[in-house]
User: Which sequence fits this backbone?
């Protein structure tokens, strides 16, 4: 039994395959998805809040402070000969960066609040800002990046001026200050936070819709398998470009980056398998793998990247228009491939109609199997009611069986009149009655 025969897959088997594909997709998402509350690649999320460093007072040789990860973190680099200490929310020693590496004070209350806690939350009882420092090395480099609540808008709701005019730029935090200590003197890092509205997503979504319709239209042509394979390859390429830009921009540890791209990596592997099956004309397996790969890359990844089309601050080293164009094309091509593959799979797995019963045929339950045609006349070929596979007017062209000629069957037709019978057309009762009582040899000679 050929695995892709259009009439051989019972619907319970199709339903089992669909459920299996959905379960595999859910398992892949649960297995490789980041923990609850985590952000996209490296813990970075697109935003409309723009944090900026305005000045470092007084300047320190070899010391630079900048905003990274779409305004969500501060990054300090110290290439000078002296250690620089970052003071916490209660002005206690928190981080130390110098020639010997990066250290953190395990007794700092700010260290305990560096996670999802707010800056105005009370510190845990186990820490004391006045306690002696206990330094613990966390990195051997000379730079450190951290999320500082003082340089970030922490409220869930935007400020009043933003709610009144969300389409305009506003300064929401006129001045924030992070204090440092270098060589016994205090250093102030001063900055501001602004609201910068994002672009309109309508042109990008319209482009995605056009691409999706184009892929669906191409999926209905004769070269549909090559077209879907090319669309899926483009989705993978665009996802790789976007992931490369986010990877180089993120300041997260390597393990966090790898965990964040787990769903995309699973989609890349499945996409490669789907393209291989489609190019080898293995329709069913290729379409199922395409649905699973496009679901991971488009639904799980692409729709989760809609923030790139809505926000102004993007965590990427690529130009913003390149990232938005890649996300638009990925969503459009992916959704189009999903729709085209689903329609093609439905068409492939739907049995072809056999038409009404022919004269002289009885679709009963004979020895040939359930639902097999059965003739009222003489036995035809090796089976009863088999279509002629070689006659120009039969086979796939018309599909009518010859009910009279004993040699008509798959590969057994020797030509003849209308319908493949030597005379009178197929299903002629008089012809069948005249030949029914004669041996096969005499019937053949009579037909010739």
Assistant:
């Amino acid at each position: 039994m050929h695995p892709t025969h259009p009439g051989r897959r019972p619907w319970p088997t199709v339903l089992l395959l669909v459920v299996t594909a959905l379960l595999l997709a859910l398992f892949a998402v649960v297995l490789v998805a980041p923990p609850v509350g985590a952000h996209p690649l490296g813990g970075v999320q697109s935003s409309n809040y723009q944090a900026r460093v305005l000045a470092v007072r007084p300047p320190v040789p070899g010391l630079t402070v900048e905003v990274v990860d779409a305004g969500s973190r501060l990054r300090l680099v110290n290439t000078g000969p002296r250690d620089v200490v970052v003071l916490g929310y209660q002005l206690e020693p928190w981080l130390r960066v110098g020639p010997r590496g990066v250290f953190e004070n395990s007794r700092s209350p700010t260290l305990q609040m560096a996670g999802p806690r707010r800056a105005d939350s009370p510190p845990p009882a186990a820490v004391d800002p006045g306690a002696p420092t206990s330094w613990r090395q966390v990195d051997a480099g000379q730079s450190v990046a951290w999320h500082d609540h003082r340089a970030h808008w922490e409220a869930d709701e935007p400020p009043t001026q933003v709610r009144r005019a969300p389409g305009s730029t506003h300064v929401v935090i006129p001045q924030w200050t992070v204090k440092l200590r270098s060589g016994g003197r205090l250093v102030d890092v001063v900055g501001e936070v602004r609201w910068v509205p994002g672009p309109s997503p309508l042109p990008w979504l319209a482009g995605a819709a056009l691409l999706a319709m184009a892929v669906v239209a191409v999926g209905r042509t004769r070269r549909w398998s090559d077209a879907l394979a090319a669309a899926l390859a483009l989705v993978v390429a665009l996802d790789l470009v976007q992931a490369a830009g986010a990877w180089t921009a993120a300041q997260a540890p390597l393990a966090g980056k790898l965990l964040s791209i787990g769903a995309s990596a699973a989609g890349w592997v499945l996409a490669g398998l789907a393209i291989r099956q489609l190019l080898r004309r293995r329709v069913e397996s290729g379409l199922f793998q395409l649905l699973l790969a496009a679901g991971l890359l488009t639904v799980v990844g692409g729709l989760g990247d809609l923030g790139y089309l809505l926000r102004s601050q993007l965590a990427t080293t690529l130009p913003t228009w390149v990232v938005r164009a890649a996300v638009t094309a990925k969503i459009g091509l992916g959704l189009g491939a999903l729709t085209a593959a689903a329609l093609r799979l439905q068409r492939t797995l739907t049995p072809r109609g056999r038409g009404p019963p022919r004269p002289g045929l009885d679709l009963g339950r004979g020895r040939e199997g359930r639902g097999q045609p059965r003739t009222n006349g003489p036995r035809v070929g090796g089976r009863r009611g088999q279509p002629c596979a070689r006659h120009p007017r039969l086979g796939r062209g018309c599909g009518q069986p010859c009910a009279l000629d004993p040699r008509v069957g798959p590969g057994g037709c020797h030509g003849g009149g209308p319908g493949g019978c030597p005379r009178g057309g197929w299903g002629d009762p008089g012809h069948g009655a005249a030949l029914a009582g004669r041996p096969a040899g005499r019937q053949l000679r009579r037909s010739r």
